[in-house]
Design brief:
By secondary structure, the protein is of the alpha/beta class. The chain has 19 helices and 10 strands.
Length: 493
Amino acid sequence: MITNWSPAHVPEKEEVKERLRTAREQLYDFQMKIKEHKIPVLVLFEGWGSSGKGSTIGKVIKNIDPRFFKVVTMSVPTEEEKRYPFLYKYFKQIPEAGKFTFLDSGWMEQTCRERLEGKLEGNAYTSRIESIRHFERQLTDNGYLVLKFFMQIDKEEQTRRKEILLSHKDTKWRVSEFDKWENEHYKKCAKVFDQYMSNTNASSAPWYIIDASDRKWAELQVLETMVSNIEVAMQNQAHSVPILQNVFPLKKMPKLSEIQLDGKVVEEEEYRKELKTLQKELGELHNRLYLKRIPVIITYEGWDAAGKGGNIKRITEALDPRGYEVNPIASPEPHEKARHYLWRFWTRLPKSGHIAIFDRTWYGRVMVERLEGFCSENDWKRAYNEMNEFEKELKDWGAVIIKFWVQIDKDTQLARFQERQNNPEKQWKITDEDWRNREKWDAYEVAVDEMLQKTSTVYAPWHVLESVDKKYARIKALKIVIREIEKALKENH
């Protein structure tokens, strides 16, 4: 892309001046429309060192109400950030609906830099590109406008600007050692940049190469591109996004009606004995996980009153409290609802060596949100593939993913609801919503069956916990967690 790129003819100064005035006014007008239409806008500035990314951002934001944007400089990942998946620090920064986020460098710079340093080659680079393509497509599919600018200057111009910066004590700090190396190895860098941009140039999130040799001309190109794309985004807002075919290998799952619940019991004495043994074993494994820096994600879905809370409690009792976190997931808060639905899960991921337990999960998208009409049919149908991608990302990062569906029958649920209702100490556990959901049991069963069929992948399969006898389900869950962790430790030996 940049190796065979030819800059457009630069207009006369007066024309640039006039077009700048128009574009600035348009962006100011459009920012309120963005807010009205609830379109989140993510603007990524990449490019050569000294190409003017920061100064261009500074000029652009003068035309936007400061209440509706933020600017983030994405520096080299810290040691703490390296303990999370690659996309974690970028997903954290995505804007709320109706707002702008401007990133001064981002996932391109990190990827290309790691490649130039010889840290990212072959399959690892291919996998990284796939992650980025999925990330950008998921954002655009969920209504985000993603604008990617590459600020282009030639070697001579970069050298000139670098020398000017280095000649003043107040500005020389802006030239890093990597900037100097980049200038010395301009051709090599251009080749890596070019390949990366070709690999990630999608129709939904294309690259815009900005001729940055003249600062006003650069600003004009950025502003006009932003204005035209915002206009198109508002026009296309009502259009449905194509549903992608699943490409991930699946494990066959039974329908809920086919799951045998009878006879799945454990006697009290046996339960106590087994519980003690298994919890001791899990506690020892937790230490080994930490040493090996292996992250574990355990998710719980299931019927109301199925026994998720008690099940989680028996697992956490075995763990070092400094190394795990339980995330109870309720209805999204306004700031969560205003972002991509996976944002609140990305931001709750464990760092390497730690365990995150989710009491309800991202699968709410294809259950409660589907049945209650909180998202469109296109949204929840598209989500199966998005969630498989998300879990594949976590698996490739090195995470152990254990997904539980806690199963009971309708009669058992009714008995437990009535027990809660009649017991003053347990009444807080039963709500009107629980009774309303129960009335939709059959519809929920259809949705759950589809979810299990479409998202039980070989790398993140579903495990059914038969929980008419809660003690049986607790023992089964502990055994599965232990088995999966042992498997991961063997693979990382």
